[in-house]
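Sequence in, structure out.
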Amino acid sequence: MTFVEKLLPKGGLLRYAILSILQEKPLHGYEIIKTVETRTKGLWRPSPGSVYPTLSELVADGFLEKKQEKEKEVYSLTLKGREELKSLETREGKLLDAATRLGEITTGLIVGGYSLIDITFKNINNTFERTLKTIDEKTSKEQLELLRGYRSLLQRQVEMIDSRIEKTHQTPTE
């Protein structure tokens, strides 16, 4: 289970992500997985083992409609699904937005120029504060686990930056 998934009740974030993505256009399961990964800048890539059962639940609950198109099952949002999306948007949407923002900041730090870095640093505290507020809503035992997970996530990001710095130092300049 990823750090982001631990912040929410079981399936809440994934249900929200699927419904949110499908409000734009019908997609098949793999496209949904790739869209989540793209939107969160690689911070979250839900597994097929969690996506497909969730899709089945959403169809059974009447939130999605499934159609067979060229050997693939394509999912689309129903009116009931749009109503469910509205009910999930407050909490799950804020967390997914925070995860996406963190991914953008990380990407900006790695591939961006100084102006992009300046812009991302102006917003980084808001992202951290929103994530920490979500963690604060949990029990103390859950908070400790989530804080450790958050620290681990950030350490991996720092390691990626350190690796880039090393590669930059090893590459001869022209």
